[in-house]
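The data layer described in this paper is built around a simple, fixed record for each protein. We quote a single record here, exactly as it is kept in our systems:
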Amino acid sequence: MSRSLPARRRIMHALVAGLALSCVAVTGTAFASGGHGHAHAHKPEHGGVVAEASDVDFELVARADSLTLHVRDHGKPLATTGASAKVTLLNGSTKREATLAPAGDNRLEARGEFQVGPGTKAAALVSLPGRKAISVRFALR
């Protein structure tokens, strides 16, 4: 019995080492591919902040007098006809909600007075025709 215990330990160590090596290999591949495997950039095109949710890119341009949400699907403009969005802005202890409506091409927009600036957080619930509602979050810089 004394011989079988060290043999079991060697087998167990080999299994654990193999599992650890497999995890490192898989993780390295995920990071090398950028984490989500599609070949478009997530750069702002309109001076806003970009976030991705459900394979759709959203760029929020927040100004004192308007909120504009630009929508792209795999880097291409996505028509917003029939779409809507509700944006909640959190700026310190101030909370403000706005309803965005289609404003041409791939934009949803709301006009009004908004307290926005570095540190403002935004949460949007976007309804696009033929898709489930998409929740997306932004942190303004």
The first strand starts at residue 49 and ends at 53. Residues 93 and 120 are 10 Å apart (CA to CA).
